[in-house]
Amino acid sequence: MGNFYGNIFIMRGLIIKTKRFYSKDIERSTWPKGIAKVRNFNKEGRDFKNVIAVLVCAENGDTSAYVRQLVKRVLDLNSQFYKLKQIVVVPFAHLSHNLAGPQIAKELIDELAALLRKEKFNVDVISFGTHKDLAFEIPGQVGEVSYFEFPYSGKKPNTN
């Protein structure tokens, strides 16, 4: 969820409105060290219709404050664009090379799910610590995919 630039940690991820989201665990991850203690594995594929998929990468330095900002961002997008009550939280370590330890990452993912449930969403959490097959069906409308990073600067990333 964060990356270190000077004295600023940055939480990153994607929020995606999906017509359909599918996930199936393929293999247990063996990295990083300690993952086996918090890893879970689901042999059965999981298929969801009309859900908000929140892909989250937990990094060193990420905090509960960033998780609360993420919940606010989901609420804003949902009220403005999505109008859905179902969320799937997807642990997604592929956005960083500076990952938080597995125990901390799992705690932040669980905290995110709990806070979203307090906001009256139905929340599912996809398996943590596994390699997965993923499928998305994403409508081609404004706001359907939203990249996030916190703290939010209000500036678009430099793509040069």
Walkthrough of the structure:
- The protein is of the alpha/beta class and 160 residues long.
- It has helices spanning 64-82, 102-118, and strands at 4-5, 8-9, 11-28, 46-57, 86-91, 122-125, 130-137, 145-150.
- It contains two helices and eight strands, in the order ββββαβαβββ.
- Strands 3, 4, 5, 6, 7 and 8 form a six-stranded mixed β-sheet that branches. The protein has a two-stranded antiparallel ribbon with strand order 1-2.
- α1 crosses α2.
- 34% of the residues are buried.
Strand content: 35-45%
Could you tell me the radius of gyration in angstroms?
15 Å
CATH architecture: 3-Layer(bba) Sandwich
Structure summary, number of beta strands: 8
Task: List the uncertain runs.
Answer: 1-8
CATH top level? Answer: Alpha Beta
Approximately how much helix is present in the residues?
10-25%
List the helices and strands and how they pair.
Layout: E1 4-5, E2 8-9, E3 11-28, E4 46-57, H1 64-82, E5 86-91, H2 102-118, E6 122-125, E7 130-137, E8 145-150
Parallel strand pairs: 4-5, 5-6
Antiparallel strand pairs: 1-2, 3-4, 3-7, 3-8
Give the tags.
single chain, 160 residues, alpha/beta, D-tyrosyl-trna(Tyr) Deacylase, Chain: A, 6-stranded mixed beta sheet, disordered N terminus
Summarize the structure.
The chain is α/β, with parallel strands linked by helices.
